[in-house]
Amino acid sequence: MEFIPDARNSDLPDWLTSEHDMGTSIMAVQFKDGVVMGADTRTSTGQYISNRASDKITPLHDRIFVCRSGSAADTQAIAGYVSFYLDLHANEIGELPLVRTSAALVQQLSYNNKAHLLAAMIIAGWDPHNGGEVWEVTLGGSRVKLPWTISGSGSTYIYGFCDSTYKPDMTKEECLQFVQKALTLAMDRDGSSGGFIRTVVISKSGVEYDTLIGNKHHKFSEV
Amino acid sequence: IGTGYDLSATTYSPIGRVFQIEYAQKAVENSGTAIALRCSDGVVFAVEKIIQSKMLEPDSNRRIQTLDKHIGMVAAGLVPDARQIANRARREASSYKDFYDDSIPIRILNERVSAFIQMYTLYSHIRPFGCTTIIGGVDRKGPQLYMIEPSGISWGYFGCAAGKAAQAAKTEIEKLDLKKLTCRDAVIEAAKIIYGVHDDLKDRLFDLELSWVCPHSNNEHQLVPKDLFDRAEAAAKEAQKEDSSEGSEGEDAQT
Q1: How would residue B1 be classed by pLDDT, with cut points 50, 70 and 90?
Q2: Nearest-CB residue to A100 (from B101, B105, B140)
Q3: Cβ distance A59 to A126 under 8 Å?
Q4: Which chain A residue shows the shortest CA-CA distance from B106?
Q5: Which of A67, A168, B46, B114 is the most exposed place for a label (fewest CB within 10 A)?
């Protein structure tokens, strides 16, 4: 998957030969009646930012979305397959699919093709039987349910902030604040994350999309 | 009688019947009666297991099968065919759970099994299944009961019966108020119905099999516990004695 220099390729810059990589900072937090999902908007091809306004939060079904990180192509392909399967499944059972089912489908694709994929995803949403849920599927294809989770290259810089700030039973607004502050910090330190912050809030009543551009980000320091 | 149009399942008669499927239904009518009741809080299965010999071990040759934790099945007709259907249903339920990380809804299992049974009516080199299959259990939508005929057609029921005394059993079932009946009471009623429709002259020896899916079994499919089973059987035998002591005449009574 990496660019190996040889006689033919050594002259070309990395941004002509590298894969599209979503360095990324993504996260999702569960609250009482739903979930808040957030992501940055930077897609890089080597050092070149091929898309500074990407949408990394992709719908899998009416009330289930996935935050994508890793290879843009791999995660788009997985999301495509899973939304197809979920569509058929939802029609067969005659109701909204479970978030756990969506995550299980992502996991099976991820695990069974682990040698060929580079994809870390956070599946979150709302279903009628379990309410809001956050599930993470890792690089190797393991799946775990969590009250909140962070992922992508930028996440490494904000574990301390998140672990110390998160508390259970936060309101929707508190979760949104938490996500926006955390992603701001991640984007400020990680070269592969940046752009602006997209958030998606999912609950029984619907889906709220929002964008938070640079000048509206929380100011942590003047430097 | 088909006269020429009944030799293969791939042949229609001039008026649009497929005789092989109808003959499969006849095989069901020769079997011991199976009934199932959907109650207010669960599902109850009962079957008249006609046995050939007193030497048979009572718990062997089960006619009531478990398809998944929360789903049971009973069939009337050819017992080996019923076993095939049960195994297919088990694989469907298991692979659904593996794929979707969720227990199979009973309505979906019914659709899968119906499609499987229907498939065997399409070809001349395999015969249709000779059983009527009753599938029931409790899922998130509550208790549900479905009955599938050899043609593959299926319906959802509050109460259903199949086998040699199906008609008589249906008449008895219709007298019950299933929307209000609980499983504990339904077990007694089911036993009474089986004993009531059993023809002592034609089939002397029979065993009663009773199972349920209800809150007392933690919504899992299990045989009815021994104490309740014994009470149900005793009540059924008692009801039989009262009936015969009232002088009601059997089919073969002579004046």
Answers
A1: low
A2: B101
A3: no
A4: A93
A5: A168
Of A130-134, A168-172, B199-203, B235-239, minimum mean pLDDT range: B199-203
**Element at B20 (helix H, strand E):** helix B19-29
Residue in chain A lying closest to B111 (CA):
A92
Largest Cα span, chain B: 65
Residue-level length of chain A: 223
Would you state the structure tokens that stand for residue A13, as one six-digit string?
């810059």
For A49-104, the pLDDT digits (tens) are 999 999 999 999 999 999 999 999 999 999 999 999 999 999 999 999 999 999 99
Q: Which candidate, B93, B126, B128, B139, places its Cα nearest to that of B112?
A: B93
Q: Is the dihedral of CA B80, B81, B86, B91 positive or negative?
A: positive
What's the whole-number mean pLDDT along residues B217-222? 96
Q: Taking CB atoms and an 8 Å limit, are A98 and B108 in contact across chains?
A: no
Per-residue tokens: A214: 């640079």
Kindly report the CA angle at A141 between A138 and A147, in degrees rounded to 5? Answer: 45
CA separation for the pair A173, A77 (Å, rounded):
33
pLDDT digits (tens, 9 = 90+) for A136-155: 999 999 999 999 999 999 99
Structural contact between residues B31 and B166, judged by C-beta atoms closer than 8 angstroms: no
Is A149 catalytic? The answer is no
Residue count of chain B, please give it. Answer: 255
Per the listing, tokens 């089912």 go with: A101
